[in-house]
Amino acid sequence: MAGKLYGIGVGPGDTGLMTLRAKEVLEGCGVIAYPVKRIGEGSVALEIIKPVVDISEKSIEEFLFSMDPDDSVREKCREDNLNKMCRLLDNGEDIAMVTLGDVGVYSTYMYIDAEIKARGYETEVVPGIPSFCHGAAVAGIPLMIGNEGLAVVPVAKENSRLLENAMDNFDNIVVMKAFKAIGMICDMMRERDIPLDRATVVCNVGLEDEYVGPIVRDREYGYFTTVIIKKKG
Ligand SMILES: C[S@@+](CC[C@H](N)C(=O)[O-])C[C@H]1O[C@@H](n2cnc3c(N)ncnc32)[C@H](O)[C@@H]1O
């Protein structure tokens, strides 16, 4: 019988925020998989599970999802990954792919899930706590309250309109992948008369070097940086 593929959200950093379901599924799977953009870069998600899941007898599999600008290189990588996964599933292995935060929030896993399902295998998503939910909790702020809405948008060079629309139309905005865009976010807030103290930077929440505090334009923030803007304070 073929194995099953699981996408497991392990929360944003603190092992204590993993769900009981995530731990149970991870313990039952023979293969723990994680996606990387570069060979050998390791996985924060894998580190998160180690204190509570014994991985010593499990096969740990790295899956490279190349960010090469050449479409054919990226496509070959993807195809190789899917084939490798199918071989493991055909051998009866249950695979758990670990994902930082929640699986449904900008994770590579959901692409894989669709492809593997289309090839006739069983899959399951185990949700986790998204980084912005943990960040809001540490900051002691509600993400939305009463009738307010929330926009969650990523920063990318080609989509500053998306962020502008969110700032124009929502009371609360979560800006993901914000690490290189702090200046741009500050400018957009100023243009809209949104005081900068309405922004909270959530960096490495639940990890070493956690910073949850005011936005500082000239400060360097790492990749795990999210900004929560509450226009009504
Ligand atoms: C590819 S997305 C993954 C999101 C993740 N699935 C989640 O549920 O939060 C990467 C972005 O998530 C945010 N992120 C992930 N972990 C974080 C953490 N520990 N602290 C702050 N932001 C984090 C950052 O905005 C980062 O650029």
Considering the chains and any ligands shown, give keywords for the structure.
233 residues, alpha/beta, Methyltransferase, Cobalt-precorrin-4 Transmethylase, Domain 2, five-stranded parallel β-sheet, binds S-adenosylmethionine, globular, five-stranded mixed β-sheet
Describe this structure in words.
- The chain has 233 residues and is of the alpha/beta class.
- 32% of the residues lie in helices and 23% in strands.
- The chain has two domains: 4-126, Tetrapyrrole methylase, N-terminal domain (Cobalt-precorrin-4 Transmethylase, domain 1, 3-Layer(aba) Sandwich); 131-230, Methyltransferase, Cobalt-precorrin-4 Transmethylase, Domain 2, CATH 3.30.950.
- It has helices at 20-28, 44-49, 71-90, 109-118, 131-139, 160-169, 182-191; strands at residues 4-9, 31-36, 59-64, 95-99, 122-126, 150-154, 172-176, 199-203, 211-214, 225-230.
- Helix 2 (44-49) links the parallel strand 2 and strand 3.
